[in-house]
Design brief:
Layout (H helix, E strand, L loop, with lengths): L6 E4 L2 H8 L25 E5 L5 E7 L18 E7 L9 H16 L3 E7 L3 H10 L2 E7 L6 E8 L1
Parallel strand pairs: 4-5
Antiparallel strand pairs: 1-2, 2-3, 3-4, 5-7, 6-7
Helix pairs in contact: 2-3
Length: about 160
């Protein structure tokens, strides 16, 4: 899936439309977008990840747009680059996450000149939490998403 020919590129409308139609299985359907809201992917903070065959395999978001709205205040301290990500549904659960996430971190470290990263992950997403811990992220705090009212973890990593 990932190799030295995998690229992270600015998001295109074609890629945004494809991402907005992705369907995840089971509890992960929480991340489905039902084919709408592609404008959010076109804000300059989202990037497509493509393989050597120019096939879309995932996406990354860097900066404040990667944060979730929370009931709690003062959740996002300065000094960290927020990262959001999504792997194409048929690539999930097949040991692709480690290489995918590290590819995004490499890109962010180079382009944003930082080694301090933060992400927000739904607590039910145990598969992602295991991956993030394997990469080196640590749990900082539990928060409540003010839109969906479900619990999330804020995790940080200094590379």
């Amino acid at each position: 899936m990932l190799n030295n020919k995998t690229n992270i590129i600015p998001m295109t409308e074609e890629h945004a439309r494809a991402i907005s139609t992705w369907k995840y299985e089971g509890i992960y359907s929480f991340y489905d977008h039902n084919g709408d809201a592609i404008d959010g992917y076109m804000d300059g903070t989202h990037f497509a990840c493509i393989n050597a065959s120019d096939e879309l395999i995932g996406y990354f978001c860097f900066g404040a747009d990667a944060r979730i709205p929370t009931i709690e205040t003062n959740v996002y301290d300065k000094g960290f680059l927020d990262i959001g990500l999504g792997l194409k549904p048929d690539l999930c659960g097949k040991s692709n996450g480690f290489a995918f996430l590290n590819h995004g971190l490499d890109y962010a470290q180079k382009c944003y000149a930082t080694t301090h990263f933060r992400l927000s992950v739904a607590i039910f997403n145990e598969r992602a939490i295991r991956l993030y811990k394997k990469v080196g992220f640590v749990e900082e705090r539990e928060v409540t998403n003010s839109h969906f009212k479900n619990k999330f973890l804020i995790m940080t990593f200094v590379r």
